[in-house]
Amino acid sequence: MADSIISARAIWKSFGELSVLKGIDLEVAEKELVFVIGPSGSGKSTLLRCLNRLEEPDSGSIRMDGTEILEKKVDINAVRRRIGMVFQSFNLYPHMSALGNVTLALRHVLGLPRDAAEARALAALERVGLADRVSHMPGQLSGGQQQRVAIARAIAMEPRVVLFDEPTSALDPELVGSVLQVMRDLRESGMTMVVVSHEMAFARAAADRVVFMADGEKLEEGPPASIFGNPRHERTQAFIRQIERH
Amino acid sequence: MEDFVDAFFNLDIIRRASPILWSGLLQTLLLAVTVVPVGAVGGVLLGLLTSSPNKTVRRSFALWTDFFRGVPPLVLLVFIYAGLPFAGLDTGAWGAVVIGFLLNTSAYYGEILRAGIESVPRGQVEAARSTGLTATKTMGLVVLPQAVRNVLPDLVSNTLEVVKLTSIASVVAMPELLFQARQAQNATYNASPIVAAAIAYFIMLWPVVRLISRLENKVLVARR
Amino acid sequence: MDGLDGFIFSFFNLRVMVEYLPDIAAGFLLTVVLAVLVVISGLAAGLSLAVLRSFGVRPLNWLIIFTVDLFRALPSLVIIMLLFFGLPTAGISMSGFTATWLSLTLVLMSFSEEIFWAGITAVQKGQWEAARSTGLGYLGTLRLVVLPQAIRMTIPPLTNRAISITKGTALGSVVGVSEILGSAQSAMAFSSNPSPLTLGAIAYLILFVPMIGLGRWIEARFAWRR
């Protein structure tokens, strides 16, 4: 695929005796929203964390815009500045305001002067609907607001792609909607996204492609209509059935 | 290099000094097993008094505690040993050390226990009293055991400090480990006896230091 | 002289006190200078060692842990004696002031390294990951994200430890430093009256009781962490 942003091939990863990823391939195209689903323990979060090398794969190849990023001599910080990440537990810096959380990398990674960094951070916070919360500390924000600050922190860097690792799993049900709305807006604006999540309704409505993983392998992938409407693999069928029952 | 070994690790000198170093070590151990219990008992008493429901009692003993935490222990010791005889009160070295350590150490143990008692939720007292336990029994059977467990790292850490502090008894000519090492050093013009004493302290106290590290790390992890 | 008069003559002798007040005041100043120097150098050295330890170089970490354990296990007075009476036999001599400063610095370095290190390890892994995922390097993450949180967690135990170690400045009197206790003792010897010692004790109280109050206030102020 010529317009692939990320092209991961044959990714293997084990923790001690336990093989978590068994030769996974994953392609992510420009402006695509790829949804990764699967039962817990299937390795989806590990796959995501391999893409920016928060986990180091044992073998395989990951190309980003055509450049191999698994080589030792690669400046991983330069790679990460173009890959945003949003975590399940937000991981906001508790000692900094919402604005401080967003400006930190702008100033110390991109090297922007304070004014420029703040202007860009304000724009990002506005995009996630938190223009009125810029000077709040994380402890003063709801879970949904904290996660939106975390999204602003990621997108302010103007990354090529944003990785979402179960962004709504730690939220109370009534706060999930606001975060999904922000993700939907990002999608509209053409942001490339890889999402690991259990929000099936959102996947159905917004995903371009759904990848189903189980036991460290990719069993099936395709447009949401076919994965949800007409799953071919037996494990996928069982998983979808179980989700639908809830 | 040889000069260095000669000056600090002179085995011949250490061998010759070993009888008096050994007697110093025994004296240090004797001091430790005397002043630690004395300070601990005083500390429990102060901890209870500074947790008293009576405001006047609580405040006066809090002041007492701060006073003796504010005076460096060596100052207290010199005051008792060299000052009090002017008023006709000659306590001798042992008396000065025991009184000085009682006053200083009990203040530290007391402050730690007060914080421990404060950390036990009020509901514990109410639950115990509701079953008909007396106030004294509630304190002894319900509150104090939990308080001690909550501040255990601080208690162990303070005990280490008290044992180390026994070295200041050398200043009032008590023949403990450091004093004897200094005597031997003076007699031989060689630092090896002090090095030997330092090694003895280290061997004796290193296990306690390790224990404290492990206890304290648990507390920080639990707090986060 | 009856009991009370004798007591007052011995311990609260105004004439003696007035005469030696300047000496004690000079001692007070020296104690403050020594204490401030110890706190600055001890905390700076402790923080540096904790940061070094975070790099995770095995042999270096064993060395750091051993050093730190050593100075936590040895009584301050033993270290002072080693430096002041021991080193000259190897041709290195230092003043009593330097020996006391260096000893207490080593002790505070060791205790504070342990506290800083506990603070660094108590910062959640997700904080590292979040910062690294934005492209911030190891040192940048440590400096901008981890240390500010670690230090905040460690302020109460650090304050209390720093206060108790600066009380060790009194040990300087044993190696001839004219800090409060040292100058009070010489005044007592000159005047054959222990009132200067009373004055010295008061000086220590003026210095340390507010610090104890400060320690308690800081402990309460940062209690939300628990």
From TrEMBL, chain A:
Instruction: Identify the Pfam families for this entry.
Output: ABC_tran (PF00005)
Keyword terms, alphabetized: Amino-acid transport, ATP-binding, Cell membrane, Membrane, Nucleotide-binding, Transport
Alphabetical list of CDD domains matching this protein: ABC_HisP_GlnQ
What InterPro entries does UniProt report for this protein, alphabetically? Answer: AAA+_ATPase, ABC_ATPase_HisP-typ, ABC_transporter-like_ATP-bd, ABC_transporter-like_CS, MetN_ABC_transporter-like, P-loop_NTPase
Positions of the ABC transporter domain:
6-240
Q: Topologically, how does it sit relative to the membrane?
A: Peripheral membrane protein
Q: What's a single GO MF annotation on this record?
A: ATP binding
Which compartments is it annotated to reside in?
Answer: Cell membrane
Instruction: Report the main location listed first in the record.
Output: membrane
SUPFAM superfamilies noted in UniProt: P-loop containing nucleoside triphosphate hydrolases
Q: Using the record for this protein, list the coiled-coil segments as residue ranges, or answer none.
A: none
Top-level taxon of the source organism = Bacteria
- To which protein family does this belong? Belongs to the ABC transporter superfamily.
Its recorded name reads Amino acid ABC transporter ATP-binding protein
Source organism of this protein record: Neoroseomonas terrae
Q: What is the lineage of its organism?
A: Bacteria, Pseudomonadati, Pseudomonadota, Alphaproteobacteria, Acetobacterales
From TrEMBL, chain B:
Q: How does it sit in the membrane?
A: Multi-pass membrane protein
Where's it found, cell-wise? Cell inner membrane; Cell membrane
Protein family (similarity comment):
Belongs to the binding-protein-dependent transport system permease family. HisMQ subfamily.
Entry keyword annotation includes Cell cycle = no
Its biological purpose is as follows:
Part of the binding-protein-dependent transport system for glutamine; probably responsible for the translocation of the substrate across the membrane.
InterPro entries named in the record: AA_ABC_transptr_permease_3TM, ArtM/GltK/GlnP/TcyL/YhdX-like, MetI-like, MetI-like_sf
The source's superkingdom equals: Bacteria
Which segments cross the bilayer? 20-49, 61-81, 93-110, 187-209
Q: Does the keyword Transmembrane helix apply?
A: yes
Q: Which PROSITE patterns match?
A: ABC_TM1
Return the SUPFAM superfamilies for the record.
MetI-like (SSF161098)
Q: What UniProt keywords are attached to this protein's entry? A: Amino-acid transport, Cell membrane, Membrane, Transmembrane, Transmembrane helix, Transport
Official protein name in the record? Amino acid ABC transporter permease
- The ABC transmembrane type-1 domain covers 25-212
